[in-house]
Amino acid sequence: MNKIRTGGHLALTWVQDLGLLVIAIATVIALGIEIATMIELKRVALADLLLMFIYLEVLAMVSIYLDSGKLPVRMPLYIAIVALARYLILDMKNLDTWRMLGVAGAALVVAVAVLVIRYGHTRFPYEKGGDS
């Protein structure tokens, strides 16, 4: 039974690593397409920079996971905040008041969640050597 568990764990680790490699390659390709589009249009907009920032955050998240084997919950939350900010910037003219307040409120809720998680990690840190 232990060989099955070890083999299954090894197989899942390979699948995870392959999935992370696919995510990283797709992100680099998307980043390259975005850069090529900016060069073709000969202009850089704030929305382009925010999108590139999201791509870099995804790459950082993949890198952190490959280095440590752990994914900090805050990383996807940072990406969500930037994505919500980008949505507000791009569609501000098309948003009605309530939708704009809803998106801004969602960004605020995610930011508060980051603060709560960060406070929890500093106030109640993981024990060394324990499962985290």
Question: How would you characterize the overall build of this protein?
Answer:
The structure is a single chain. The protein is mainly α. It has one domain. The longest helix has 40 residues, at 2-41. The model has no long low-confidence stretch (mean pLDDT 90). Helix 1 runs antiparallel to helix 2 and helix 2 runs antiparallel to helix 3. The chain is built from four helices and no strands. The radius of gyration is 19 Å and the shape is flat.
Roughly how many Å is the radius of gyration?
Answer: 19 Å
How many DSSP H or I helices? 4
Helix-and-strand structural type? mainly alpha
Listing every helix as H and every strand as E from the N terminus to the C terminus, the arrangement reads: HHHH
Q: Profile the largest sheet.
A: none
State the main characteristics.
132 residues, mainly alpha, 4 helices, flat
Offer a concise description of the structure.
The chain is an all-alpha fold.
Topology readout:
Elements: H1 2-41, H2 46-68, H3 74-91, H4 97-123
